[in-house]
Fold:
Amino acid sequence: MKEKITEHSIRLFEEKGFSETSIQDIVDSMGVTKGTFYYYFSSKEELLMDIHLRYIDELLSRQEQIMTDGQLSCKGKLFEIVYMLISSIKTKRSSAKIFFRELHNLSGDRLAQIVSKRDQFRFNVEHLVTEGMDKREFRGDLNAAIVTFGILGAANWSYHWFNPSGSYSDREVAGIFVDMILKGVELHR
Structure:
């Protein structure tokens, strides 16, 4: 039942927004009572926190697997991370939208916990960029922090426009992104 409440809430939060969705809206969409909701969640904010944790914890876990894969070069790891972010849109588009759009509705320690996890994901990518520079896989004159923001901005924003059923697969889009990141768009003659 907790999973069902979460699924219905994600759909409603995506459609109406967190602030505009009431607990009554959630239980009405499921045909249950508020008591059912409160059995699993003490508040709507706790539910939002649960949605945020599920999303970021899964990404961090998958990122850790990529980062520790000794068979991959820095370029390979960068591709896999970008691919992971874009491919997650197939199953996690709504959660991604809620993660980025509704973060400001978390307060205090909850907000700090999610921001810390989000920052850890970013720092891991920045470390990868720096490592790639040190290993001469990437240009040595890059600003690793700014490059990281660019990579994550492009990949994370794709939930707005990427259509998993469209002309390009998630793997093809990831390849285009990583090629653009690594080679730029300037014509070299």
